[in-house]
Amino acid sequence: MEGPFIRIEDTGEVVPLRPEITTVGRGRGVDIRLTDPSVSRLHAEFVRRGPYLYVVDLGLSRNGTRVNGRPIARRVLDDGDVVSFGAARGRVGGIPREDFTPEVELRRAAAPELTRREVDVLTSLCRPALSDEAFVAPATAREIADDLVVTEAAVKQHLLRLYQKFRIPEGTNRRTRLANEVVALGLVRPTPVVPPQRTGTPPAEQQASAAGRRAS
């Protein structure tokens, strides 16, 4: 087989990787579909750039992606590397060998300058992905518009500018790629979970009681 491929461990199936991007997950729309329940619907993607191949964890799964047992966000691959998507594994092959250090992850570009409104849009976009669910897709333009009380057209214009600023190429899963990049750069973080109040006297009544004690 010419070009990079991955051999799925459970089935022995050999799948050639596409010339640019190959998506991996449990959903029906991905290029490599894995049925293991630990795999997200859209878990990761392989990206080919000239003779190089790297894998990108899409950051929306608790189980993550590993290369040779090590958790990664984005990692250049070498021939024979074992890539794990949750509990599912495969070995990549067909990658040209050269003097290159595969242990080094590709460095991400510095975060671009953002306006306050762009930060609001990114926060709303990523909020579902930062929940405790095993996989939740980023918010849609309509959901962001409802969240920020603006028009959907305005949100789409902001997203177009953000795609340019973060250099997200055209294609499928563009919102997911943007959300993954933003979360990986630490620009948006999970909102702290407020613990539920204990049952008993409501806080308002507790304050009133304390005020009464101080008055007496």
Descriptors:
6-stranded antiparallel beta sheet, 216 residues, Cell_Proc_Reg/RNA_Proc, single chain, 21% strand, alpha+beta, Sig_transdc_resp-reg_C-effctor, phosphoprotein, 5 helices, DNA binding, 5-stranded mixed beta sheet, FHA domain-containing protein
Q: What is the assembly state of the chains in this entry? A: single chain
Rg result: 22 Å
How many strands? 11
Instruction: Briefly note the structural class of the backbone.
Output: alpha+beta
Distance between the termini: 87 Å
Beta-strand residue percentage:
15-25%
Write the layout of secondary structure elements.
Blueprint: E1 5-8, E2 14-16, E3 21-25, E4 32-33, E5 44-49, E6 52-57, E7 65-67, E8 70-72, E9 74-76, E10 82-85, E11 88-93, H1 116-126, H2 141-148, H3 152-165, H4 174-184, H5 203-215
Parallel strand pairs: 3-4
Antiparallel strand pairs: 1-2, 1-11, 3-5, 5-6, 6-9, 7-8, 7-10, 10-11
Helix pairs in contact: 1-2, 2-3
Describe this structure in words.
This protein is an alpha+beta fold. The protein contains five helices and eleven strands. The strands form two sheets. Strands 2-1-11-10-7-8 form a six-stranded antiparallel β-sheet, with no helix packed on it. Strands 4-3-5-6-9 form a five-stranded mixed β-sheet, with no helix packed on it. Helix 1 (116-126) crosses helix 2 (141-148) and helix 2 (141-148) packs across helix 3 (152-165). GO terms for molecular function: DNA binding.
